[in-house]
Q: What sequence folds into this?
């Protein structure tokens, strides 16, 4: 789910929240992109009115995206990338006006790289409900007010249908490949099942066929961290008179998530029981290095994401079940006859390898038969954002078919 690669910008000296604010100032009410901010490399497409699976209506939906490479005359060289939970359309390029971080897959997308932009037209939309230009809770409703807590519940299938309309607007009928990691892998799976006629190849990376009770439970703690922040105000915090958004709740949710993005062995080897101050935590005052690491990245996150979008996207992930209405998981996956790379990470404690093995076992097009392709790495779930050479090798293998 994490999309900064890797999280090694953590300072070596102890830093408190007060020091972080001294460096960067108080977090904005929302760290998401808002109309009036620098556009950066974003492009926009309107898909008009949208109705969710459960009957809610969004009168006007805009999708934000970035593209890399050139769409050929036959319009058959497009590769669709679905991003992870806290990702967006900025696959490639530096941080700067409009983009608070560097591109999250710069080592994989570009001329001569695995997703070769001299050959492919790589396109990455920000999902419906996101906070980097596509319509979401921070967008204005027909009355000119932010949707806030009134923004409707979305499912993964809703977001895929919005992406279908997005592809229609760009007049791309079929994709050479559809690729997604983590939450994006959920979208890629749903896209292939709903749009097999529009998909030549599929890559599902570190994503399950269904969100389990364990994963939903972990998500609940993150959701409640945000909702219980007094500054959350039921989701209607954008015009808070004191200028304070639910920074504490969002940062806490981020801390909880980070613990699942890395393996316990990697955290133990990286931090051990070291403390990051002149005073030992055992004597009162001071703190362990891993605490400082989590605090730093939790607070940094509030400067680039919106709390309401976090809730909407996490709840959409909870909805994920490819077997819903399709006769169960095995029956649904049996329809995946196209070449399918199912890439799993044995050290992943968020979306465990068992889920990827289940996809491979039932998908006739799985490249490695009944078991998922292994990405052996100590980095846990985040390995697909760190182990660029291994991921590139597998994507090249898929695209060569």
A:
């Amino acid at each position: 789910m994490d999309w900064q690669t890797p999280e090694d910008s953590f300072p070596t000296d102890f830093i408190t929240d007060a020091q972080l604010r001294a460096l960067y100032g108080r977090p904005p009410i929302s760290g998401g992109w808002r109309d009036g901010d620098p556009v950066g490399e974003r492009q926009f497409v309107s898909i008009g009115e949208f109705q969710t699976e459960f009957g809610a209506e969004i009168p006007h939906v805009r999708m934000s995206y970035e593209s890399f490479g050139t769409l050929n005359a036959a319009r058959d060289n497009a590769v669709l990338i679905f991003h992870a939970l806290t990702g967006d359309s900025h696959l490639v390029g530096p941080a700067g006006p409009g983009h608070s971080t560097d591109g999250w897959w710069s080592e994989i997308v570009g001329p001569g790289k695995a997703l070769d932009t001299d050959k492919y037209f790589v396109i990455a939309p920000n999902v419906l409900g996101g906070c980097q230009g596509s319509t979401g809770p921070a967008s204005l409703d027909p009355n000119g007010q932010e949707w806030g807590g009134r923004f409707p519940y979305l499912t993964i299938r809703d977001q895929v249908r919005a992406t279908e309309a997005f592809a229609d607007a760009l007049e791309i009928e079929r994709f050479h490949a559809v690729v997604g990691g983590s939450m994006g892998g959920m979208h890629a799976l749903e896209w292939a099942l709903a749009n097999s006629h529009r998909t030549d190849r599929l890559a599902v990376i570190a994503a399950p066929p269904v969100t389990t009770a364990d994963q939903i439970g972990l998500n609940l703690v993150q959701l409640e961290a945000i909702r219980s922040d007094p500054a959350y105000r039921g989701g209607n915090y954008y015009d808070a008179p004191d200028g304070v958004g639910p920074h504490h709740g969002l940062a806490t949710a981020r801390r909880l998530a980070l613990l699942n993005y890395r393996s316990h062995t990697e955290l133990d080897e990286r931090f051990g029981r070291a403390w990051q101050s002149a005073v030992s935590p055992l004597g009162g005052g001071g703190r362990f290095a891993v605490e400082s690491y989590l605090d730093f990245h939790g607070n940094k996150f509030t400067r680039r994401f919106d709390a309401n979008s976090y809730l909407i996207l996490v709840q959409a992930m909870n909805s994920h079940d490819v077997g819903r209405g399709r006769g169960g998981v095995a029956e649904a996956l049996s329809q995946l006859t196209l070449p399918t790379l199912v890439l799993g990470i044995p050290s992943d404690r968020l979306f465990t390898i068992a889920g990827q093995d289940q996809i491979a076992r039932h998908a006739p097009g799985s490249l490695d038969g009944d078991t998922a392709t292994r990405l052996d790495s100590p980095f846990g779930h985040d390995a697909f954002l760190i182990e660029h050479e291994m991921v590139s090798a597998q994507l090249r293998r898929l695209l060569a078919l």
